[in-house]
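ok so for the tutorial part 2 we go from a plain amino acid sequence to predicted structure tokens. step 1 is just haveing the sequence, like this:
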Amino acid sequence: MHPDDKEILQLAQDSDRQNEALVLLMKKYKERLYWHIRKMVIIHEDADDLLQNTFMKAWKNLRNFRGDASLYTWLYKIATNETLNYINKKKESLLNEDADMEMMLGNMLETDALFSGDEIQKRLQKCLLALPEKQRLVFNMKYFDDMTYEQISQILGTSVGALKASYFHAVRKIEAFIKNEVF
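step 2 — the prediction. this is what the tokens look like for a chain of 183 residues:
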């Protein structure tokens, strides 16, 4: 059983128990955040590094957490920003060619020994890689992470209406990819 967020935040306020708060925070959210990041970057090592960066940033700012959003939403926002910054830097190194990034991640998905999904899951991941970044992110958060549009709105700073539109377009594109078997 994981401690509640209130307990973690109380521990974070006590300078003698901050490390304990971080350990509890990591135990509670590590797996969900890892998979959120991994769906965006595909590669285990990159996801692991980004997860560490996320928790380091959270640890540095935990005492200043204002509670405007839930701890869960705050952590997802940090993880999402870290991941998007990483992806953008990676794209820059590939001369901003999205097709190169998509192809590179698709190839890595094929050879990733740590990918535990079946062929259908692999095909879905390839479809997702073909989506524009924002649509992929919104789809992952809504479909896989089962987040509400309101939670996603808090994390991404986008209106609920825009998120619904992004999700709708993502679903339509995935259906078209599957129907046309473009893999």
